[in-house]
Amino acid sequence: EAQVTQNPRYLITVTGKKLTVTCSQNMNHEYMSWYRQDPGLGLRQIYYSMNVEVTDKGDVPEGYKVSRKEKRNFPLILESPSPNQTSLYFCASSLGFQEMDTGELFFGEGSRLTVL
Amino acid sequence: AQKVTQAQTEISVVEKEDVTLDCVYETRDTTYYLFWYKQPPSGELVFLIRRNSFDEQNEISGRYSWNFQKSTSSFNFTITASQVVDSAVYFCALRNDYKLSFGAGTTVTVRA
């Protein structure tokens, strides 16, 4: 089954304790991206990756890191989480942009993170 | 810079009423995609429709229909004969190159 898998789905942590949210897709997609969802703000793009070893900042990258060492995985790293990073996080993937006709994003189920 | 505006924060209707969700976008690009996603109370994002900037045909899928007008930079979504299961947050989104920008979302509540 084609899917984007995020882990953990729920996490409560404390300020400053490094954490990683994993994202994996089994569709051989080139493009992957992370978003955070906050009330009244919709979803905002954190980072995206066009392919292995190619990443770039989205609209709200501060406080986050990513890496893309393999095509299927795109982990989101919070080196020193703060309470303002409490949010619902979504990972997404799609085929590359070389062919613009393939624009659909496949989303993971979301990871709800609380930083105390 | 690109931007998506969903001016309606919340809409509440009685079952079987029609509901139209507005979406206005801004972009300098000539090639882009517009999307609508649904987020039910369970939280996942459900893809509803994709439309590219060169295709202004309106589309109907069951009780859902979409009206894309480049002249007004709008991509509105109508649910006909709404049902309680339509209660959700609906997001409009704009994608060009590698950026995907979402509107703030419209919460639709359908009362029985």
Sequence-ordered SSE layout with sheet pairings:
The complex is a heterodimer of chains A (116) and B (112).
Chain A: E1 4-7, E2 10-13, E3 19-25, E4 31-38, E5 42-51, E6 54-57, E7 65-66, E8 76-78, E9 87-94, E10 106-107, E11 111-115
Parallel strand pairs in A: 2-11
Antiparallel strand pairs in A: 1-3, 3-8, 4-5, 4-9, 5-6, 7-8, 9-10, 9-11
Chain B: E1 3-5, E2 10-14, E3 19-21, E4 24-26, E5 33-39, E6 46-52, E7 59-61, E8 64-69, E9 74-79, E10 88-96, E11 99-102, E12 106-111
Parallel strand pairs in B: 2-12
Antiparallel strand pairs in B: 1-4, 3-9, 5-6, 5-10, 7-8, 8-9, 10-11, 10-12
What does this structure look like?
The complex is a heterodimer of chains A (116) and B (112). With 116 residues, chain A is mainly beta. Chain A is built from no helices and eleven strands. With 112 residues, chain B is an all-beta fold. Helices cover 0% and strands 55% of the residues of chain B. In chain B, the strands form three sheets. In chain B, strands 2, 5, 6, 10, 11 and 12 form a six-stranded mixed β-sheet that branches. A four-stranded antiparallel β-sheet of chain B has the order 3-9-8-7, with no helix packed on it. Chain B contains no helices and twelve strands. Chain B is globular. In chain B, β10 and β11 form a beta hairpin. Chains A and B meet through β4, β5, β9 and β10 of A and β5, β6, β10 and β11 of B.
What is this structure, in a nutshell?
The complex is a heterodimer of chains A (116) and B (112). Chain A is mostly beta strands.
Largest sheet of chain B: 6 strands, mixed
Structural Rg of chain B:
14 Å
The SSE order of chain A reads: EEEEEEEEEEE
Count of strand segments of chain B: 12
Structural class category of chain B = mainly beta
